[in-house]
Amino acid sequence: xxxxxxxxxxxxxxxxxxxxxxxxxxxxxxxxxxxxxxxxxxxxxxxxxxxxxxxxxxxxxxxxxxxxxxxxxxxxxxxxxxxxxxxxxxxxxxxxxxxxxxxxxxxxxxxxxxxxxxxxxxxxxxxxxxxxxxxxxxxxxxxxxxxxxxxxx
Length: 153
Prior knowledge:
25% strand, single chain, 35% helix, alpha+beta, Jelly Rolls, 8 strands, 5 helices
């Protein structure tokens, strides 16, 4: 099988997180993502720390930087860089999984193309595709652990 390269399709992105989902279900899950990708220019925020989590984003192409203000939004302390993520990754998942405001800001480093999954469709995935929901929760827990290891709440 040929190696997958960005830009990833919606089906390819979903498949990266749900290897055990049957093909017909995979196509259905892909329809839960917004029909068209969102595009972000370098320097443009995708999610902003402190804002409500209304969706998560599957990165189809490009690179993003994840930063956080240690004392929260409005803090005079400059943000710290937590990670650089790229095509095939998901961002914004922690707010959905934990039903809390965004814990970090995600900003496009390069031109980024991403597919959004709304909060309502996340709930649909939780109800009907527990394996996929569990994998996304696992990513959120790993990232929370990494933030805690760096001394961030």
